User: What shape does this take?
Amino acid sequence: MGVKSLAVALAVLPQAMLAEAPPAPSCFESGAEWYLGTDYGNGLRLATKYRANEQSDVGTGYLLSCTAGRAVEARQSGTDGYVFYDLADGMIRSPERYTLDDLAKLTREAGWSAQVVNFNKGACICGLTW
Assistant: This one.
């Protein structure tokens, strides 16, 4: 494809296709900013929380069950930055059934710290949508 053909092709593309992806929905609550990752429906969602007073740009990852008021809370410990999110996504999409405890255990085995925690069903992150 020549330069002229490429220029014509780009000129006729809708502007929406050329624009950057929109920022992730976010909310601020109790000194922390939440960013919605993937919303799997039925109150199950991946999210990241950043505390205002943290010196690190690494947030805390969560797989939230907003309807149950439970979550896996995971922090990166020097390993791949996406391990927790990849594990959570794979387990959710798997035809097999997994629990939050299963995810926390596998996340720890992958080098992150992780635990199952109670979670406020009314938290702002539970009300965000894409």
